[in-house]
Write a structure and sequence with these properties.
single chain, four-stranded antiparallel beta sheet, two-stranded antiparallel ribbon, 8 helices
Length: about 210
């Protein structure tokens, strides 16, 4: 984990990471998040996750019943979306302005998102032309925390003969490289069934064409 240095919001970088991770775990799947799942997402021990969740609950950033699910409070969700906005705008900047590949932007944005100011992020948004989605198709929250609606579902759950790719998970850089080589990028139309294994299909979200 990153140090206890405090970001522009007054939260520590660790607190920001936890809030963002909690949001991302529920962004595309309606599922209850446990401390164990949060620990797995961040690569930490369950004990560390439990201690941090207790801190966040004490600050009214999350709701948590011991041994129960963790949910973001309205304040926690606002801070999580603030970090998501930073991350996705930085990913877009790295690709569009600095020539990074879409398989390279995630880790770089992870480092930068804690260091820039809100003013910088707003200026970056304007510079980029107020993009609505990042390189992987994920929605970029507005400065007010609003998100464009999406009707996308996971490809392995899609029924139909033709679909448009809406977003692709950025969890695996190698998969992103393979997907790009096959033309599997946001906005691409694919005919089904496509030659993907079950795991790969679960990393792609599509909508009807």
């Amino acid at each position: 984990m990153k140090s206890a240095r405090r970001g522009p919001s007054g939260l520590t970088t660790s607190e920001e990471d936890y809030l963002k991770a909690l949001y991302l775990l529920t962004e595309w799947e309606e599922t209850e998040v446990s401390t164990g799942a949060l620990a797995d997402q961040l690569g930490l021990s369950p004990a560390s996750a439990t201690a941090m969740v207790q801190k966040l609950a004490a600050k009214s950033l999350v709701h948590h019943v011991p041994r129960g699910a963790i949910t973001l409070s309205s304040t926690g969700r606002r801070e999580a979306l603030r970090m998501v906005r930073r991350h996705r705008l930085l990913e877009t900047f790295l690709r569009d302005e600095l020539g990074y590949g879409w398989d390279e932007v995630h880790d770089e944005a992870e480092e930068l998102e804690h260091t820039v100011t809100d003013r910088f992020v707003d200026a970056l948004d304007a510079r980029l032309g107020y993009p609505r989605h990042d390189p992987h198709g994920d929605a970029i929250p507005s400065a007010h925390g609003q998100l464009p609606a999406s009707q996308a579902i996971r490809l392995d759950r899609f029924t139909g003969a033709r679909a448009i790719i809406d977003r692709i998970s950025d969890e695996d850089p190698q998969f992103l490289r393979r997907a790009a080589a096959q033309g599997l990028v946001p906005g691409a139309v694919i005919e089904l069934p496509h030659q993907l294994d079950f795991i790969e299909a679960s990393l792609i979200w599509v909508r009807r064409s």
